[in-house]
What we know:
By secondary structure, the chain is of the alpha/beta class. The protein contains 14 helices and 14 strands. It has helices at 3-10, 24-33, 47-61, 74-85, 110-125, 139-154, 184-195, 206-218, 235-245, 257-262, 265-273, 303-310, 321-332, 359-373; strands at 15-17, 41-43, 66-70, 94-99, 128-133, 158-163, 200-202, 225-227, 251-256, 278-284, 287-288, 294-295, 314-318, 338-343.
Amino acid sequence: MKVQKLVEIIGADFYTGVPDSQLKALCNYLMNTYGIDPKHHIIAANEGNCTALAAGYHLATGKIPVVYMQNSGEGNIINPVASLLNDKVYAIPMLFIVGWRGEPGVSDEPQHIYQGEVTLKLLEDMGIQTFVIGKETTVEEVELAMAKFRKILSEGRDAAFVVQKGGITYDADVEYKNGNRIMREEIIRHIVKVSGEDPIISTTGKASRELFEIREANGQGHKYDFLTVGSMGHSSSIALGVALNLPNRKVWCVDGDGAVLMHMGAMAVLGANAPQNMIHVVINNGAHETVGGMPTVASKIDLVAVAKACGYPKVVRVDTLEALDRELELAKHSDELCLIEVRSSLGAREDLGRPTTTAIENKNEFMRYLADLR
Length: 374
């Protein structure tokens, strides 16, 4: 169905969420209609953040907010749904729109398979009533579902539309861009060159896909890399766990701005532990590019200052390959935790592939390599 019709049926005037490719029609509609507007539309750092923000909106206005997200974000909403929204606590009504990645019977990436299997069960276990919107779902069916939802919401309970692939559509395009000059894939290529045989932990999305293809093109194999295909926002914590247990080896984390924002507390833990052998590279294009290009707030904040405040002893920002190469070499030969923020343009190759090895194969090969380094 057309996303405009879904929005009309819902009848809400405030949306907050974390972008999802399955919900690209909704995300683009909201950006075209509102942009980022504190009265109507806010892209938040993570799904729990969205839920709390929406709760505040309801407390202040008495109206029903809408939270949109990929189903991978259900884990982030469990705490606020169970201990804040639930009708045994504050009875705060909320409507969720959830993109259903990894739907059973639909081919998808490994990180989505189990999440897809438990998507509806998790929502139902949290007391959230669900209705699935697919390609064949009619307007009348959605109107009937929303009528039932309104009764549920009036009782201080929560509901969710779960959207299958192609379940909602939007004809207009949105152009996402920034003024930065260097491409993420080129940045990663330079990191690979300087890191040599050091372990790399790469973040969720296109960064890991590009790292995989760079290794393929170089004929290097993939034992050096742990591709964090899921658990967005946690690659730096994984890298910290590796670095603390391989103190005599440089460990690199290739991170993204959206991931850093999602669980920024990880930076405080990193700074407090300050492993001398870890290099944290944050590629900042100010966008959730992997799921469509919708903006993050990272272009409006000073990540270098945040890292410094968190206790990183060495922090720097670069926006050219020449400066990047210089800082990578300095970090490689330093004896302190380093953060390098690289300002990146948006975009990726249209023929960018996906890893041809399984997640288990990646883990096993990486662990064997780390065992050899101990």
